[in-house]
Design brief:
Elements: E1 3-4, E2 14-15, H1 26-53, H2 60-89, E3 93-94, H3 96-129, H4 131-137, H5 140-166, E4 170-171, E5 174-175, H6 183-186, H7 194-228, H8 233-266, H9 272-297, H10 299-311, H11 317-320
Parallel strand pairs: 2-5
Antiparallel strand pairs: 1-4, 2-3
Helix pairs in contact: 1-2, 1-9, 1-10, 2-3, 2-9, 3-4, 3-5, 3-7, 3-8, 7-8, 8-9, 9-10
């Protein structure tokens, strides 16, 4: 077997795999996959566009939603070329450097999305538990600072992981379990002890996503305590309804991500096709469902999107006159 070092060989480092054992059905599988990619791209683009052009949506809650849509767009675009390349053209070979770059973006945007969900949880906590301080805390400058911290956090934790892999030697021509590069999948084919890298990778993920998830859960415990102290049932329902979208977004993001990570690291006997399905759910479910959830739940966004579709991109006074509120 040949040792491939990223600086000494020109042969392909890894072979991407879409759905192991279902290669003959790739053409048919590509139809729903393409539809999901189109929904993710169009849905998040519309959400972002509506928030940009509608002045009444220039509020902290919608700023964070625009961050979420931007991250979902970037995460979708980062895997689109390789996924469709494997399904449509059977282009499975990918060089080490290209794989490393894609892995950086996949994990980086995942960390970004987790951080944005934390910021959205804090936004809901302040809006419900401390409404009088909400406008004081969430100024434009503070929101900009939160965005910069989120980006810095992603670079600090992702870049060292990529640099560490850059000098590692891998087995040449090994098949990955997914149509994109994923750290737990790549690290299995190093010549060094994969358990060390796996442990470090799992520790990093547990530290980042675990901390984020605990913060979100703690925020909702405080929110629930505040809501239950409200006497009027209608006010309780209105307060809880503002959190429904965020709870759905948290669920569709963390459940597939944690399932995929533990399947790779702890359940090595799991069939590869199951890992592949989990990976596609992890990458496509949040970008597809988030714009649908927020469009259905947010009346202003829903109406503005309908105006965009009706006038085919001509957003005039009818869109500007909409007011932002949650159903």
């Amino acid at each position: 077997m040949v040792i491939f070092n990223n600086t000494t060989s020109s042969s392909p480092d890894f072979l991407l795999t879409a759905f192991p054992g279902l290669e003959l059905a790739h053409v048919w599988i590509s139809i729903p996959v393409c539809c999901l990619y189109i929904i993710a791209l169009l849905g998040n683009s519309m959400i972002l566009l509506v928030i940009i052009i509608e002045k009444s949506l220039h509020k902290p809650m919608y700023y964070f939603l625009s961050m979420l849509s931007t991250v979902d767009l970037c995460l979708t675009i980062s895997t689109l070329p390789t996924v469709l390349g494997v399904l449509w053209f059977h282009t499975r070979e990918i060089s080490f450097k290209a794989c490393l770059i894609q892995m950086f973006f996949v994990h980086g945007f995942s960390i970004l999305e987790s951080s944005v969900l934390v910021a959205m949880a804090f936004d809901r906590f302040m809006a419900i538990c401390n409404p009088l301080k909400y406008a004081i805390v969430f100024t434009d400058m503070i929101i900009l600072l939160i965005g910069l911290v989120i980006c810095l956090r992603q670079v600090v934790f992702t870049f060292p992981m990529v640099l560490a892999l850059k000098n590692v030697s891998f087995h040449a021509g090994k098949e990955l379990s997914h149509p994109f590069c994923y750290h737990p999948d790549m690290i299995k084919y190093t010549y060094s002890n994969p358990w060390i890298s796996n442990f470090l990778g799992m520790f990093l993920q547990l530290y980042l996503t675990g901390t984020d998830l605990l913060f979100i859960l703690f925020s909702y415990i405080l929110i629930l305590r505040t809501v239950l102290s409200i006497v009027a049932p209608k006010k309780q329902q209105k307060a809880l309804s503002t959190c429904v979208c965020h709870i759905c977004a948290v669920t569709v993001f963390y459940v597939p991500m944690i399932s995929l990570s533990f399947t790779h690291r702890l359940l090595s006997s799991t069939p590869r096709v199951v890992c592949s399905i989990l990976a596609n759910v992890y990458l496509l479910l949040p970008p597809v469902l988030n714009p649908i959830i927020y469009s259905l739940k947010t009346k202003t966004i829903r109406q503005a999107i309908l105006q965009l579709l009706q006038f085919k991109g001509s957003w005039g006074p009818s869109v500007r006159g909409l007011r932002g509120r949650w159903d």
